[in-house]
Each structure stands twice: as structure tokens, then as C-alpha cells.
């Protein structure tokens, strides 16, 4: 079974427990807004390409995530607030 891991995020044993929980929650894209944004981090870290659709191909989904990210970077869209992200 493939399991997502993020070794580039160094978490020492005394790291912030909230950050550890966020990283663990982010390993499952269903826990993320639009399958790529953790509500507690907003746009600080974007997890593009980790979602696995039940039906359909992965590349079009990744392209949609990248397009959404580009719209945010160009200020054409804004992320909703944390409570709204948690509702969706």
C-alpha cells in the first residue's frame, strides 16, 4: 500500500504538536480543501497531485488543482476563510 510521506518537512521529536497533526492529516487529500489546502495553513503549503479520484484520471485532476493555485497566485481568486474551508 502506497503511503504519502513528506520527508522535506523536518519534524523533530519536540516539534509543534499542531504541525505534526496537520502533516498527518494532509497525507489524506480528503482532509484538505479542494484536496490541496489545509484550512489551518491556508496557502502556506499546497499539496498538489496527491488526490486520487475514485473515477477518472489523475492528470486532469492535478491540472485543475494547478489552475486553481495559479488563480490564487495571480490574485484572481482568494481562499475562503478557515471555517468556510472546513465546511466544504
From TrEMBL:
Record-given protein name: Uncharacterized protein
Domain of life: Eukaryota
InterPro entries: FAD/NAD-bd_sf (IPR036188)
Amino acid at each position: 500500500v502506497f503511503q504519502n510521506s513528506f520527508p522535506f518537512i523536518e519534524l523533530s521529536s519536540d516539534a509543534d504538536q499542531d504541525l505534526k497533526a496537520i502533516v498527518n492529516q494532509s497525507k489524506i487529500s480528503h482532509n484538505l480543501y479542494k484536496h490541496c489546502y489545509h484550512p489551518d495553513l491556508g496557502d502556506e503549503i499546497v499539496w498538489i497531485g496527491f488526490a486520487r479520484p475514485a473515477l477518472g484520471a489523475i492528470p486532469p485532476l492535478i491540472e485543475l488543482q494547478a489552475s486553481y493555485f495559479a488563480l490564487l497566485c495571480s490574485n484572481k481568486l482568494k481562499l475562503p476563510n478557515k471555517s468556510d474551508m472546513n465546511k466544504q
